[in-house]
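User: My collaborator sent over this chain with a note saying "see what the structure looks like." That's all I know about it. Can you take a look?
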Amino acid sequence: MLIIRGYGGWGVPLGLVEQFIEFLEQAPNPSVPVLSRRVLLKCRDLTGAEAGTVFIVRGRGRLRRLEAVAVQNDVVRTDGATFTLPVTTDSIAGYVAATGETVFEADAYAIDPSRPYRFNPDMDERTGFRTRSILAFALKGSKGRPVGVVQLFNRRAGDGEDGGGGQGVCAFLPGHGSVIAPVNHLVGRALERALTLERLSEQNRELRRQRARVTELQAETERALMVSVRLLARAAEIHDEDTGNHILRVNEYSHALAQLAGQGRAFCDTIRYSAALHDVGKMSVDHAILSKRGPLDEREQAEMRRHPEYGYEILIVSDRLQMAADIALNHHEQWDGGGYPRGVAGTDIPLSARIVALADCYDALRSRRAYKPAFTHERTVGILTHGDERLNPTAHFDPHLLTLFCKNHGLFDEIWESLKDQEEK
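Assistant: Without extra context I'll predict from the sequence alone. Here is the result:
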């Protein structure tokens, strides 16, 4: 329904519709604010309005509200003023948004009391602007529902028109209604597209923010895991002679050997922290056995040999420590099946554990112990390649890994030199 109050008999050429269509096609897919400002400027140009506002409908149901996204005024400065109104019939813009009807008012201060809406003079009082005539119409989307409202104020008097009390302001013309009918759908659908693009852009920004947050949380989780691994590895060594940087060096030897063995990045990165936990099961071994000076008796030996199983039970509960659990359980197994706790042999021993077994042995030979001095790199390489009275390398180690070590043993020496303990320097 078209509601008209106090208008004259002037008409508006329908050719203006074609102008509006051409105007909309000049800038495809503009943002909501840009489109709203351009639409308002064009509407004011077509009608001669001194001022105007474009609202868009935000929210749903009872939470719907009108947000002013473009405010223009040739008489007073608005300084980009923005504000919101509820979508109710109390205000003119709210009424248009709620009903989809077009409103003409010749005098904002003399609205028929039978109308459900009222003019709010607050803006006039704050700015000194004097609202007289009003034209408000809905911008309707593809489903015919209002997606926005254009509200125009004070049509300037044309040549030969009576401006009403010499103020130069006239009521908007009924002929504007013939322009509004097709234009509000054209502009409304353009605004609807702009709103959709705005929502998609915001959703994409939110997705990027969420991805960044997930990445940040993953990094925090990773840092927390690494701290936990280091603390757990240190705790396992508290009663052991393998102190200082032993676990760091074993990590680096294992990482280097895994790379030489052609393993992928994920495997190499995982073994780089998992290797440090190879002896974590010692935390469950009787303190008296760990701290005993001299040889262990048969019962004590049996208990000590259970530390791989203890370590496995500690680590297996964590998804991120599955490799560490395999290493803990199998790093004392031997290639020929002569190791413990299960006596598995060959490739039945997980590759990660075979790598750590060689890395751990190299570092043990290089380190000073109560029963032996620290060996040089050259002597250590000799023992690992040819053996001695305590070690048979062909029985203990994966032959392929042993070959890689022999060809690249300089890497192990470089790691030792970069991470050796203060007393070894």
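A starting point for your reply to your collaborator: The chain has 15 helices and eight strands.
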